[in-house]
Amino acid sequence: MMRFSPDIVTVAQRTAPGKPQAVASAHRTKPLPADHRGRPLPPAPPTHGQRDLLSEAMLHTSAHAFIGTTWQLSAPWGLELPAGPCIFLRVEFGRCFVQVGDDGQHITLAPGDVFLSIHPTTLRLRNAPASPTVSLLDVFDLADISAGKPLVHGGGDVTTKLSTGAVILRDHQRMPLIPSLPAHVHLPADDQTVKSILNPLLDLIRAETAVADAPGHLATMDHLAQTVFLQIIRAHLHNSDAPTDLP
């Protein structure tokens, strides 16, 4: 006769007449940890003796990506982006000067360069350091930004074109690794990660934007944007020889 281990036997408990019978497992599993929306979190990644802090940061913290979109900006132009999301962008053509927070210095982005702001702070983008800025939300409708529509703005002179996207991180300061990173990462166009990984990813985001009605569009854009975010940070860690794990 076949015998079953008590560990896998389920016990049918009799209930009062007219009520359904309940089936209980001999071994009850503990509830899975959940994010702020009550969704189960994925299991911890295999450690192989080391902690992968970047994976822990993204897998165990809620992250949501905005849809990527293209901005066509003609000089003179200047935009102020509110603090909160981690903004990434690639300069398709033209130039862009970025001011991070209240820092008086400007970061010059050339065609093909990739930029990421990591910590919640105000960003000011300009065609020239002296150009005045207006709030992004005063110029563009939030619904259009969320829908991934191309954005056009400026005075009509020399044009700069940017491919953009954003990732929102919940509990930013409580995440592993992220608080220790710099306020921004700037990767030049000739960086190996830009050429071999980020450019194809950003091209795929741009192509996906054109099929907004396709099944799975929002999920695809969300995952692509998060992948861009991770790849930029990975490139920074590689270039700076910063530690990415702990024993």
Overview of the molecule:
- The chain is globular, with a radius of gyration of 24 Å.
- A 6-stranded mixed β-sheet has the order 12-4-13-6-9-14.
- Residues 1-17 and 19-30 have low confidence and may be disordered.
- It has 247 residues and is α+β, with helices and mostly antiparallel strands.
- The longest helix has 24 residues, at 217-240.
- A hairpin with an 8-residue loop joins strand 1 and strand 2.
- Helices cover 23% and strands 30% of the residues.
- Uncertain segments are 1-17, 19-30
Question: What's the SSE pattern?
Answer: EEEHEEEEEEEEHHEEEHHE
Query: How do the strands line up in the largest sheet?
Result: 12-4-13-6-9-14
Total number of helices: 5
Distance separating the two termini: 50 Å
Mean pLDDT: 77
Indicate the percent of residues in helices.
Answer: 10-25%
* CA-based gyration radius: 24 Å
Structural shape: globular
Category by helix and strand content: alpha+beta
* Number of extended strands: 15
The proportion of residues in beta strands is 25-35%
Biggest pleated sheet: 6 strands, mixed
What's the helix and strand layout?
Elements: E1 10-13, E2 22-25, E3 51-52, H1 53-59, E4 63-74, E5 78-81, E6 86-93, E7 96-100, E8 107-109, E9 114-117, E10 123-126, E11 134-135, H2 136-139, H3 142-146, E12 151-154, E13 159-169, E14 184-187, H4 192-209, H5 217-240, E15 245-246
Parallel strand pairs: 4-12, 5-11
Antiparallel strand pairs: 1-2, 3-15, 4-13, 5-10, 6-9, 6-13, 7-8, 7-10, 9-14
